[in-house]
Amino acid sequence: MKLTTAILICVTALVVLGIPTMAVADSDRGKQLAMQGDGSGAPCSACHGPNGEGNAAGAFPVIAGLNERYLFRTMQAYQSGTRVNPVMSMNIDNFAEQDLLDLAAYYANLPSPAPAAPSASAEQLALGEKIALQGDWDAYIPPCASCHGPNNQGVNENFPAIAGQHASYIKQQVQAWQQGQRTSDPVQLMEAIAKRLSDEQLDAVAAYLASQPAAQQ
Amino acid sequence: MHSINKLTLGFATLFATSFSVAVIGAQSSPSTEVKLPAAAAGQYQHTAPTLADIESDSDLHPELRKVILKGRDLFMNTQQLRGEYVFNDLNCKSCHMGEGRMAWSGPVWPAATTLPDFRGKNGHVNSLEERIAGCFSFSMNGKAPEYGSDTMLAISAYHQYMAKGAKMYDKNIAGRGFNHLGNKIPEATSYANGQKVYEENCSVCHGSNGAGTKVDGTVVYPPLWGDGSYNWGAGMTRVFTAASFIQNNMPLGQPGRLSDQEAWDVAYFVNAQERPQDPRYTGDAKETREKYMNFHKATLYGTEVNGAVLGQHDNTGDKPFLKPDVLKPRSFN
């Protein structure tokens, strides 16, 4: 009897979880949550800044203006462990699904910040531009833009904008893929390429992307 | 109650575990290894020049350099000819990946070292320009830029420069075209499994409806069927061509990820979908299939799949005509 009940509860839970969320996201509520946090940690704005602009020194990413569904799924990934970051996981573990939807709506609708002034040499930026727009096919590295879209400004929830992102964050994430710590990418599309990028190429492409506008001006 | 909670948790964990195992199990092999066929003994190999080579080759007259670079630009962004010569969403680089330089990805330089030559598809001797015209007529669902025109000159100059230093007339070339899996569809090939492989590996970019993805009107992931894709006369409609292309090039960045059979299955599935009419259409798909059996023996065109005869329609996609004038016989009798 107990077993039957347990299975019933289990199946019901799966059915409920499996139904696509029909809830409407509330970006005003998302703004409140961003400023107050999940109740047991720092608010989003502590690291991602008051306008979602992130922080290059801390490798905290720009989240303003990113694809809404991508932001939502990313937060879910931190909750489920397919993306690992102790600070993120700790600070969002108490958010409910609706909270994540509201937060994603809030940040997706903020304007993207202007790109940082290039911090790399002209030579490095040229190499970065080559990786981003032409790739290095002899090392089987397709250009970033073949998936991340024209000017690397993003396509959809699976392929986010990477132009205008902090170089420190891009580098940290590619290294996470290289080390097997980030596994939320569909069909391992990014993992395969991340593992072929040399340190020199990674530094260059991160610097180049950071110098590019995140959205059409 | 306590035991129920524990049990529930146990079940939930079990479900979650089996789910993640299922997801991981969907991949056929490690994704980071580049697994391409090895060249057979005696096969000719050639490393095509890069963009940097075009830009720095001191042998090139500055005017020629401009023409080759224009050709490369047209090759990479063929959509600039949309509405004039191109009537679908593809670029040359959609199938000839890696700038047309890569073995196992339809490298373009062999066209420059082996043509003029007899071509079975149209049964006569083709020049490089006529071979390029074939791509425009079928793969690009359009018509060719006029022979000798600036556009045709630029595109053929790019092809020829890619062959710089290569041996003329050696036809035993490693990684040429798309046929390393052979041209016989294995008996085990399954539409249903092809659909499953497609959903798991391809639909994230190309869409469940095969229509690809655009951003602000720019094609990012090309359509694989439907009006935006290659027409029923394109080489890629041959199941073996698609199977080899897919296995050595897809998913992007992971050549060799799919098993041989998965590649056959998904190629069959993709090529069992509708697409713009074969420009050689006679008004009846079965008849057209018979007439061009040397080509269509490898396609599903004019055959019944899921209760309908593929290609039995008058849809030419965005192209406002059926047959470009350039498709005509040539004889020296």
Automatic annotation (TrEMBL), chain A:
One of its GO terms (cellular component) is periplasmic space. Keywords: Electron transport, Heme, Iron, Metal-binding, Signal, Transport. Heme c 1 binds at C44, C47, H48, M88. Residues 25-213 form the Cytochrome c domain. This is Cytochrome c4. SUPFAM superfamilies: Cytochrome c. PROSITE patterns: CYTC. Heme c 2 binds at C144, C147, H148, M190.
Automatic annotation (TrEMBL), chain B:
Residues 315-333 have a biased composition (Basic and acidic residues). One of its GO terms (molecular function) is electron transfer activity. Residues 311-333 are annotated as: Disordered. InterPro entries: Cyt_c-like_dom, Cyt_c-like_dom_sf, Cytochrome_c-type_DH. Residues 78-196, 189-274 form the Cytochrome c domain. Residues 1-22 form the signal peptide. Pfam families: Cytochrome_CBB3 (PF13442), SoxA-TsdA_cyt-c (PF21342). PROSITE patterns: CYTC. Keywords: Heme, Iron, Metal-binding, Signal. This is C-type cytochrome.
